[in-house]
Amino acid sequence: MKFKALTLGILIASAGASQAATVNEVFNGKMLGTNQRYFESIAGVPRDSFRNDHTFVVQNCQITATIGDGKVTALRLDLGQGCEANLQSFIGEDAPKPGQTITPGVFGSGQRYTASCLAECGNAADPSAYALWQAPRSAGGMEVLMEMVLAGDKAMTAADEWEKQIKQAAGMDYVLATKFNCETRFNSIAEAVFKDVPVNAITVGYGLPTQRCN
Fold it and tell me: Of 140, 188, 193, 198, which is most buried with the most CB atoms under 10 A?
């Protein structure tokens, strides 16, 4: 009887979590800092886990929670196909309006740009460019990392222009070694060319990792 009661309780809890979970409930500023057990009671069981990253599917949208020392430190949402990020719970009035297409430009200026690769990237996976924006201290200094997959026309055009200008100023070896990830002298160029490029995924948290140079 105890075993049946326990099993029934788990099933009820799982059903409750799946019924209650919405993207806005899971991808929410209130989830940052919560413990893993509580987060999973809302988000459900992760579909996949790799190191500290645990991926959940909520309303057919992919949300990845980074969990360190048992607490949620960052949340990532893949955008598109009906999956929209409401950032108001994270950064309040500094957030784009709900339903607005998210591009780096909606956050104004001052983002830090990096990329996984700009030239001779190979065919294993599409490279990405990243724009890291930090909220004002009044909003807690939270970080927002925007990822743009370099596959669509706008993203490719922006990446090609960024690469061209970097190569002209610093040479091809500099580009291949992604040295632009370790300094900011070409950041203003990236800001200009990527400002209207739609974002494919967005991560919110503190101390978010950025791309490195080789």
Answer: 193
Nearest to 192 by CA among 97, 95, 121, 105: 105
pLDDT greater than 60 at residue 15 = no
The verdict on residue 128 lying in a domain is yes
C-alpha 153 chain-centroid distance: 21
Cα gap 65→54, rounded to integer Å: 5
* Residue 111 CA from chain centroid, whole number: 14
In the chain, where does DSSP find H-type helix? 2-20, 23-26, 36-43, 88-91, 153-170, 172-176, 187-194
Q: Hey, is 128 helix, strand or coil?
A: strand
Token pair belonging to 154: 């706008």
Domain total of the chain: 1
Over residues 96-129, the pLDDT tens digits come to 998 899 999 999 999 999 999 999 998 878 999 9
For residue 204, what are the β-bridge partners? Answer: 75, 144
Position 144 in a domain: yes
Amino acid residing at 43: A
Alpha-carbon span 104 to 145, nearest angstrom: 10
Percent of the chain residues topping a pLDDT of 90 = 81
130 in Cβ contact with 113 (< 8 Å): yes
- The number of residues in the chain equals 214
Statement: residue 140 has pLDDT above 90: no
Is the residue at 212 inside a domain? no
Cβ distance 39 to 65 under 8 Å? Answer: yes
